[in-house]
Amino acid sequence: MMSKLVRMPKTIDQEDFEKLSLNDTVEQKAQLESIIFQEKEIDIDALERYLKDLFSDEDAQAALSSLRIRLASFGDNLRRTTISEYDMEWCIRTLLAADLLSDVKQTTLKEFAENPTIIKELVSVLNMQLSSLQTWHWPKEGVPAEPRKALNGKVRFYLDGELLTTLLLQYIGIKWSIELKTALLDFRNSRAWATTPSSLTKLDIARLTTFLNHYNGYESIEQRRRNFQQSYYFMCQLPSSVESFNQYDDDGEDDEGIAGTNSRRQQRLTASTQYGLRFNTPVDLKQSLLHIVCTDALLNRALHDQCTIVRTDLEWFGPSLAHKSILTILKFFGVSQSDLQFIEAFLACPLKFTGSMNSYLADPAAYKSTPADAPRIRKRGTPVAHSLSAFCGEAVLFVMDYTVNRKTNGIFLYRIHDDFWFLDSQSLRCAEAWKAMNDFATLSGLKFNATKTGTKHIGDKDQLHPDLPKGDIR
Question: Can you say whether the dihedral through the CA atoms of 371, 373, 379, 385 is positive or negative?
């Protein structure tokens, strides 16, 4: 046998591929830097007036008051809570599932998880850090942002922070995410959330009973549609509990998206199958949404002779989120000043893009960062794969969900992360939804991705509203 392997010369195709991969990565890094270090100017007064107007009616005010009391109380209690060994176990488990850590730190954390003594020490240290959360900050020397290639071939830049800091942020992010989702589900189930169509009249129910021999409103098409939307698509980026940690990813250009690609672990949702649809994984979630949209389109065509479908997503959503928009919306929802101060410190991370793209692409396993540049304060966007990033992003996008709900009197909007789908038999209602989305996006500093935005109209083309976006649905 040969004592050592002979390295074969590279072919022209291999060299071209590596050159293309390097060029793409360098372009992504340059575009990312051009976004996250440039503060997005937001008219805070205009955004606050918009929020006050959106939540101005009596039902919305009542639901908003409950939301504010709940989030303020939760934040106060969280700062005074005591992290337990059980908390540390689920915190480690969800962190390992988030695809945030490097391979070396994943191995270290797995070893920690198997050692009860170390678990107790981690609990003690994190409790001390939690008690002084108001003074928390990133290290002044900065946090390395290192490239890592995902399964879809994209290179993303992950924070390579200290393990204790990452554990603390994971704990706080998961706790806030669960609370926000629970609180907003209560808001959605209140009278503030518009539903359409209105309930059947007594005459309608009598006719149904006569022709079908029974009537069960909970088995109606409308109710099933609501159940699907609420159970599987409403705020689906946030976990309902520590046992249902989820992440969604698209293969688009959002190289620092909130969810992050899970390149080593496919995170599963709570197993569920209804009416032949599966919602067990992020892939199932999207495939089932396509089934629901197609079914609704066929139903609208049969009942109303037409249907309009609109699909869009946000361009560079994770990196482009304006910090002022995040903080303004969280403040409006009742998050206390102490908690806002901590979140602002989390967002303003001093970043260092270290190491060489050439060295990374040549051998990702042997890649080592080098302290090349001075740290630069992040002024826009959220760190990839952090649970606090999901919390911030979903808080902002809930406002878009709600403005569409109110402006259209309850049109069904399906959203997975920053991927939006809505349809209706009336093209006008879709145009109203699209205008409402654009109005909020303009105020909050968001931008829709033109290449992934389009409209499909089934039926008489003359009925298609001119204000709807052009382009195909992809």
Answer: negative
455-473 pLDDT, tens per residue?
Answer: 999 988 778 899 999 999 9
Three-class DSSP category at 160: coil
Give the pLDDT band of residue 14 (cuts 50, 70, 90): very low
CA distance 421 to 203: 34
The Cα–Cα gap between 217 and 246 comes to 31
Total-model pTM: 0.87
Tell me if 412 sits within 8 A of 225, measured CB to CB.
yes
Residue 305 has pLDDT above 60, yes or no: yes
Q: Where are the alpha helices (DSSP H) in 235-355?
A: 282-304, 317-320, 323-332, 337-347
CA distance 331 to 48: 10
Q: Is 112 exposed, middle or buried (0-12, 13-18, 19+ CB in 10 A)?
A: middle
Total Cβ atoms within 10 A of residue 361? 18
Helices 85-97 & 103-113 angle (0-180, nearest 10)? 150
Dihedral of CA atoms 458, 461, 465, 471 in degrees, nearest 10, equals 70
Q: Specify which residues 159 forms β-bridges with.
A: 145
SS3 101: coil
